[in-house]
Q: What sequence folds into this?
């Protein structure tokens, strides 16, 4: 079946602009995670969604970051007033123990 | 605070050799330990995983060894092939509530297998 998909694959934005990143999880997966991967680093947890439960936002680095998940499926990660340190690959995963990752969105803030 | 420490940062192995990557963790609440393989420009792919009730798990050429008392686990790749050249990440998780198994990752090991 189809895996996790993310869009766009690449995004270049100017400092101070807002960006939206999209994730389509594997059909039927109720758990969805966002992670950030900075150059040469491991992945850092950002946020977790599970059904209608309150999300775990403990990994969001600042209040410029927010995410939502509509209808228990598609999720959008929004970064407001982007900064150069936000440049990274943003990865989405679905599944519980076994998390399956999408290809990521490479965000470059100039 | 880095909760999962991975070594080495990079590793070069000859074709047919054994690649060994080590990880150590601090949080004794962790109860699920996966390894991920990542090729350039791709998302990480789940390779193999272990729970602390067993000391070893083998899938094909890939084996995880787990030492609960030492809080260490390692990935062994037997008969390493050039196609195994990738970045490998260890990770750890536990249920932090509501089936939330958010992963804590090591910083990765870049494996190069020379032909």
A:
């Amino acid at each position: 079946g189809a895996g996790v998909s993310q869009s766009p694959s690449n995004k270049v934005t100017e400092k101070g602009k807002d960006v939206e990143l999209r994730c389509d999880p594997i059909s039927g997966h109720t758990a969805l995670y966002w992670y950030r991967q900075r150059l040469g680093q491991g992945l850092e947890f950002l946020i977790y969604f599970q059904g209608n439960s309150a999300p775990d936002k403990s990994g969001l680095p600042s209040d410029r970051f927010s995410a939502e998940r509509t209808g228990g499926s598609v999720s959008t990660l929004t970064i407001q007033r982007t900064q150069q340190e936000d440049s990274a690959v943003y990865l989405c995963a679905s599944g519980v123990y076994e998390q399956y990752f999408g290809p990521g969105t490479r965000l470059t803030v100039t | 605070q880095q909760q999962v420490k991975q070594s080495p940062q990079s590793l070069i192995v000859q074709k047919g050799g054994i690649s060994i990557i080590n990880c150590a963790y601090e949080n004794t609440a962790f109860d699920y330990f996966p390894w991920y393989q990542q090729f350039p420009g791709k998302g990480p792919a789940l390779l193999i995983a272990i729970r602390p009730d067993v000391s070893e798990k083998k899938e094909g050429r890939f084996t995880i060894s787990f030492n609960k008392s030492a809080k260490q686990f390692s990935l062994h790749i037997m008969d390493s092939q050039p196609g195994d050249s990738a970045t490998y990440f260890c990770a750890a998780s536990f249920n932090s509530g509501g089936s939330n198994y958010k992963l804590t990752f090591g910083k990765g090991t870049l494996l190069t297998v020379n032909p």
